[in-house]
């Protein structure tokens, strides 16, 4: 269960990128290396999820159904 969804966090980050008030607490939080590393990871993870959704149309779950008894 997500407390805050990926889309909400990425939306927050996108809004912060356009702001010029970097001296406030939110601006300082946004500029922290840990925050930027997390956002980068989240964007990559979100992109991977999009790729997984579009490439899994064959109905296969990767398991083998062969009867080799």
Automatic annotation (TrEMBL):
Domain W2: 1-52
Pfam family, one: W2
InterPro entries: W2_domain (IPR003307)
Superkingdom per UniProt: Eukaryota
Signal sequence bounds: none
Chain segments carrying region Disordered: 43-69
Bias (Acidic residues): 43-55
Protein name: W2 domain-containing protein
The organism's taxonomic lineage, starting at the top: Eukaryota, Sar, Stramenopiles, Ochrophyta, Bacillariophyta
């Amino acid at each position: 269960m997500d407390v805050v969804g990926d889309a909400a966090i990425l939306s927050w980050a996108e809004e912060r990128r356009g702001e010029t008030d970097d001296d406030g607490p939110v601006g300082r939080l946004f500029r922290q290396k840990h925050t930027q590393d997390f956002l980068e990871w989240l964007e990559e993870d979100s992109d991977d999820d999009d790729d997984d959704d579009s490439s899994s149309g064959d109905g296969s779950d990767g398991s083998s159904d062969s009867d080799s008894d």
